[in-house]
Design goal:
Layout: H1 7-17, E1 21-22, H2 27-38, H3 42-45, H4 56-66, E2 81-82, H5 84-102, E3 108-112, H6 120-132, E4 136-137, E5 145-147, E6 154-160, E7 163-167, E8 172-173, H7 179-188, E9 195-199, H8 200-208, E10 213-217, H9 222-229, E11 235-238, H10 249-261
Parallel strand pairs: 3-4, 3-7, 3-9, 9-10, 10-11
Antiparallel strand pairs: 1-2, 5-6, 6-7, 7-8
Length: 263
C-alpha cells in the first residue's frame, strides 16, 4: 500500500477527485433522499429504526453538521458539498474505533459493502489489515439468497477475500438492503462480531442489532448519519461513495495508517 498522505495532502486529494468538496451528487438528489427518510421510506432507512421524530428540516440540519452539505433550506438545486475536513475527522475516528477493536483478544470482524463499484477496494484493504492483526474475519450465511427488487432477481451473499457483498449470479450488485446482514447476524446467534465495517444496509442492520459498527455514507444516504446521531452507529464517514476505485487509495492509506498508529 502506498505511503499515507498528510492531512493537507489528503484534503487536496479528496477535493480534486470529488470524494469531498464539490461532489457529483446533486442538491436535488440529496434533498429528495432527506424527504424520503423523513417519510420513513425503508429503502433509505438501511434497517434502522429511528427513535426521534426526524423531520425533513431535522435531517437537513444533521447532514449540514455531519457531512457539510449546505444548511440553507432555500438552496434546492444545483451543486452541493461534503466538507473534506469532516471526512478526514471521521476517518480518524473510524481508525481509532477499528484499532480499539483489533486490540481486543481474538477479535471477530465482519466487513461488507453495498457499493462494490466504488468502495470495495477500501473494504478489501481493511479486511486484509484485520487479518494481519490477528482478527478472525467472519463469513456467515454465504450463498444465502434474497429476492431483489430488480425484476425479482435472486441475489446471494458472496465473499471476496472475506468481504461480503451481494451478487445476482453474474455480477456484484449495489444494494441498500439490510436483510443480508440480518441473515448473517441471525446465523451467528450469540457469537456476534466485535466490529462491523460496512455501508448502506449492511451497516444499518448491524448498528440496529447493537453490534459496534463503523461505516461510510454519501451525502444522499442520511440514514446512517441519523443512526450515528442516535448512538446506533459508532462512526460514519461522509464521502462520495462511487468515484473511481483508484481514487480511494490515498484515503485508504490514511485510514490504515491511523489504525496502525492506534495498535
Amino acid at each position: 500500500m502506498q505511503t499515507a498522505p498528510s492531512r493537507d495532502e489528503l484534503r487536496e486529494h479528496l477535493i480534486r477527485t470529488r470524494i469531498a468538496g464539490d461532489i457529483a451528487t446533486s442538491r436535488e438528489n440529496n434533498l429528495d433522499h432527506y424527504r424520503s427518510l423523513a417519510a420513513r421510506d425503508p429503502h433509505y432507512m438501511f434497517g434502522l429504526t429511528l427513535e426521534g421524530d426526524w423531520t425533513y428540516r431535522d435531517i437537513l440540519a444533521l447532514m449540514a453538521k455531519s457531512a457539510g452539505v449546505s444548511s440553507d433550506p432555500d438552496h434546492r438545486y444545483g451543486q452541493d458539498t461534503i466538507d473534506p475536513d469532516r471526512t478526514i475527522d471521521a476517518l480518524e475516528a473510524m481508525g481509532d474505533r477499528v484499532a480499539a477493536a483489533l486490540r481486543r483478544e481474538n477479535p471477530r470482524v465482519v466487513v461488507a459493502t453495498g457499493h462494490p463499484t466504488g468502495l470495495l477496494t477500501t473494504h478489501l484493504a481493511l479486511a486484509r489489515l484485520a487479518r494481519e492483526c490477528g482478527a478472525t474475519l467472519l463469513t456467515p450465511a454465504e450463498q444465502r439468497s434474497f429476492i431483489g427488487k430488480g425484476l425479482g432477481r435472486r441475489r446471494r451473499i458472496r465473499y471476496l477475500d472475506e468481504v461480503a457483498m451481494l451478487d445476482d449470479g453474474g455480477a456484484l450488485v449495489h444494494t441498500h438492503d439490510p436483510a443480508p446482514m440480518q441473515a448473517m447476524l441471525n446465523e451467528l446467534g450469540d457469537d456476534r462480531p466485535d466490529l462491523v465495517i460496512g455501508d448502506h444496509g449492511w451497516a444499518g442492520a448491524a448498528g440496529e442489532a447493537g453490534v459496534e459498527t463503523v461505516g461510510f455514507a454519501d451525502s444522499n444516504d442520511p440514514g446512517l448519519f441519523v443512526g450515528e446521531a442516535e448512538g446506533k452507529v459508532a462512526v460514519v464517514v461522509p464521502l462520495d461513495d462511487n468515484v473511481l476505485p483508484r481514487h480511494y487509495a490515498p484515503m485508504t492509506s490514511y485510514l490504515v495508517s491511523r489504525v496502525l498508529s492506534g495498535l
